[in-house]
Amino acid sequence: MGNSRQRPTRPTRPTRPHGYRFDERSRVEDMTEPWQPAVTVRRRPQTPPRPTGSRRGGTRPSRPLTIVLALAGLLLTLSGVLEIAGAMPWPFNAAKNGVALVDAFPTPRPTKTPTPTPTPTIRPTPTSTPAVPSGPLYIPPPGSYDLGCGPRGAHALPYVVRSAPATSAVALTFDDGPSPDYTAAILTTLEQTHTPATFFVVGASVRSYPNLVAREARDGFAFGMHTWDHPFMTKLTPTARAWELTSTLQALHSVLGPNFCVPYWRPPFDDYNGDVLTLTQAMGLTTVTWNVDPQDWASPGVQVIVNRVLTYAQPGSIILLHDGYFNRSQTAQALPLIIKGLRARGLTLVTVPQLLAGGH
Ligand SMILES: [Zn+2]
User: Fold this and answer.
1) Any bridge partners for residue 56, and if so which?
2) Contacts of 360 (CB under 8 A, 6+ apart)
3) How far is the CA of 212 from the centre of ligand 1 (A)?
4) CA-CA distance, 205 to 207, in Å (whole number)?
5) Which of 14, 43, 316, 342 is the most buried if burial means most Cβ atoms within 10 Å?
């Protein structure tokens, strides 16, 4: 059941929300073509003209000449390969490829897109993948998933949210969890300081550590999906992309109940394109990234993490931190100082839904 292929209607022209900077040229509907690197293939040169006036009759090049020509050909081939490799931007930068980004503040991010993190890259288990048809714009049938947001459903924002209008609020977000090593310590800090937060969880870890997810929900924290196993979404087939989200939704709902509204998702590695956003928007999901990235995943030092957050956070900021999968001890240690520092600047800490609702 539910294996019918359906093409989604093209997104309608998005309304420009008050207070948002929105680039009309980069609407989602303009991003249906996946980005392709500009690859230049260098051809090997034509065979040089045969030498004339050779003592051997001019029919074959001499042996040293043959070796020189072979070496030249090898070098040209190698340079062509390197040129192709150099033409591939790494990591993928969605902003450079015409994907809509919305940022209430023109403040530059502290760093560019981080180099690929050693985050989990386990492939979906084929046996647990539901049988779904493949197609260029496959969207799961509406009955096959339910975000749990009630009869009105989730209202997906038609652009990528990196921050929100707010006069004095910011949102702390934690990716890649839950983790048996660091999530509990981070939760204890959040609980003791009465700090709301939002967790972008990995489905496989939700299945492994449901008690931590339940604790986050009891604390009133918000959730977003961070896929099942943290792949580069643009590199997956359309059906695998859909599976990454529906399976994570299932895992969350198995812990929190089917009526727990999960209207957000965050692309791993900040990797998305028009096809990915078409899918997520059709599912009712709002794509949430960040505009403050202290690169805590690289363990640059507790004080460095704190300083980066406090330097770049502004009202409306969405701050990226990590609680899962790898060593996040510096993040856990930095968190009390981050909370204290943000509050000392007069900023209120809220969840992502609270921030999008206007914050404070
Ligand atoms: Zn991640």
Assistant:
1) none
2) 166, 167, 168, 169, 348, 350
3) 18
4) 5
5) 316
Distance CA 292, CA 317 (A): 7
Distances, alpha carbon 356 to alpha carbons 264, 276, 287, in Å:
11, 22, 12
Dihedral over Cα of 282, 284, 285, 287: its sign: positive
Q: Which two tokens stand for residue 170?
A: 């910011």
Q: What does the block give as tokens for 300?
A: 């640059």
The contacts of residue 100 (CB under 8 Å, 6+ apart) are: 22, 23, 26, 27, 28, 31, 158, 159, 160, 277
Instruction: Give pLDDT tens digits for 234-246.
Output: 999 999 999 999 9
Mean pLDDT value across the chain: 73
Single-letter code of the amino acid located at 81: V
Query: Separation of 10 CA from ligand 1 center, angstroms?
Result: 29
- pTM higher than 0.85: no
Collect contacts of 90-94 with beta carbons under 8 A, ≥24 apart. Answer: 90/116, 91/115, 91/116, 91/269, 91/270, 91/271, 92/35, 92/232, 92/234, 92/269, 92/270, 92/271, 94/160, 94/270, 94/271, 94/272, 94/273
Catalogue the active-site residues: 175, 322
- Give tens-digit pLDDT for 59-105: 344 455 555 555 554 444 444 433 333 333 323 233 333 344 444 33
